[in-house]
Specification:
Blueprint (H helix, E strand, L loop, with lengths): L9 E5 L5 H8 L3 E7 L2 H10 L5 E2 L9 H4 L4 E4 L21 H12 L3 E7 L8 H13 L3 E8 L7 E2 L1 E8 L17 H4 L19 H8 L5 E2 L8 E2 L5 H4 L4 H16 L13 H8 L3 H11 L2 E4 L2 E4 L8 E2 L6 E2 L11 E2 L9 H8 L11 H10 L3 H12 L2
Parallel strand pairs: 1-2, 1-4, 2-3, 4-5, 7-14, 9-10, 13-15
Antiparallel strand pairs: 5-8, 6-8, 11-12
Length: 397
């Protein structure tokens, strides 16, 4: 069987961002010989934290060749995921989707022994799958055998449920039965401990007189502000009178009935809930419910939608307070915004350093730029421990 025999392996990085993918490969013993990204801020941070060349380049049009970077053993490419993401627009026409194919074409042109493409799992949905299949076709026609692997970051010492998909292409039979071994979980409590005075750790507490402060005060660990689902993890707006206004027990009972019925009585073939008719409500709550509904309209808890009755706030979860006993949701670009994510104990969102730790960046990795820029770089990165595990598995084949 042919082996890869990596003695002093090299790697080139496309869509490198601030360098999460590259940190993992560097930790696994790979030497970077070139990295490229369109963001000047991300490239600046990359250059200050990693030990190899990184250039600003629009990979939609740039020519990257062996004359540019030499001949790498491995090419890694984490192309933009916004169009494929189910948390975003999930837009099959997003022009950034084509960058997945550009990554494959550039990588093939560099003629490495291994190519590694990364993206969100949404790219494998029926709506988006054509992009992944086309990238696979490009690699196979260039003589590579391919495998698709789904991974969950919490299996690799990263305390978050971040699911990603990797397309691994190789010209060696040594990777024909490739697998990515995990190495255990790390607790969120351990991850967030002993963080005071570190760079990029600047906590911003909610103002005590603000609506956000009163909402956060009502949200416990592993809970979220949510009107459309019941259960212990959901805290509805009608239980936060300081912000949304007081309600009677009868009004709260009716709101809870509406919450349940709008998911059970369906009038459309899409979505997961529908507004209700007064007939539905009177049948369930009694003929006198009309006056209660009127009061809830006045108080702002209900609205009219297409001649029917619906909840005013139909979001499925804001102000998610993380729990030390559970992995974090996937760190995204909004992770520093309290309206989306709350610290497990304190009345605030997360700092850039906390988000970076949850992503698996070492404390020595320093981020620069505005707060929003730092969270964008961190949220878009491949968690270094995941990258390191994959790199080590490739190197050892």
């Amino acid at each position: 069987m042919t082996t890869l025999a990596f003695d002093s392996p090299t790697v080139a990085s496309l869509f490198c961002g601030c360098g999460g993918f590259d940190v993992g490969f560097e930790n696994a013993g790979f030497r970077g010989i070139g990295a490229f990204d369109i963001s000047p801020q991300a490239v600046s941070v990359f250059r200050k934290n990693l030990h190899h060349k990184c250039d600003v380049a629009d990979l939609a049009t740039a020519t990257i060749s062996n004359a540019t970077v030499g001949r790498p053993d491995v090419v890694i490419a984490g192309s933009p995921c916004q169009g494929f993401s189910t948390l975003g627009k999930n837009d099959s026409t997003d022009p950034r989707n084509s960058l997945l194919l550009r990554g494959a074409l550039i990588a093939v042109n560099l003629r490495p022994r291994v190519i590694l493409l990364e993206n969100v799992c949404g790219v494998l949905s029926s709506k988006m799958r054509a992009h992944w299949d086309e990238a696979t076709r490009i690699l196979r026609e260039a003589g590579y055998s391919t495998q698709t692997h789904r991974v969950t970051s919490s299996d690799f010492g990263v305390p978050q449920i971040r699911k990603r998909v990797f397309l691994i292409a190789s010209k060696s039979k040594a990777l024909s039965s490739f697998s990515v071994p995990g190495h255990g979980e790390v607790s969120l409590k351990q991850t967030l401990s002993a963080i005071t005075r570190l760079p990029n750790h600047e906590p911003i507490e909610l103002k005590p007189s603000s609506e956000a402060f009163f909402i956060a005060a009502r949200i416990g660990q592993h809970q979220k502000l949510c009107n459309v689902r019941g259960g212990e993890r959901s805290v509805p707006t009608w239980l936060i009178p300081e912000v949304f206004g007081g309600t009677t027990k009868r009004e709260r009972d009716v709101l809870e009935v509406i919450r349940a019925l709008r998911r059970r009585i369906r009038s459309r073939q899409y979505g997961d809930s529908d507004p209700l008719t007064m007939h539905d409500l009177k049948k369930e709550c009694g003929k006198d419910v009309g006056s209660v509904i009127d009061r809830l309209f006045t108080k702002g808890y209900l609205r009219k939608l297409h001649g029917r009755v619906d909840l005013t706030h139909t979001f499925n979860g804001k102000y998610r307070r993380l729990c030390y006993a559970h992995p974090s949701p996937a760190v995204d670009t909004r992770f520093g915004t309290p309206a989306y994510y709350l610290h497990p104990e304190e009345p605030r969102g997360f700092t850039a350093r906390e988000a970076a730790r949850i992503q698996g960046f070492p404390d020595t990795f320093i981020f620069e730029g505005t707060r929003a820029t730092q969270f964008k770089m961190i949220g878009n990165a491949v968690p270094p421990p995941v990258a390191e595990s994959i790199a080590t598995a490739i190197k050892e084949r």
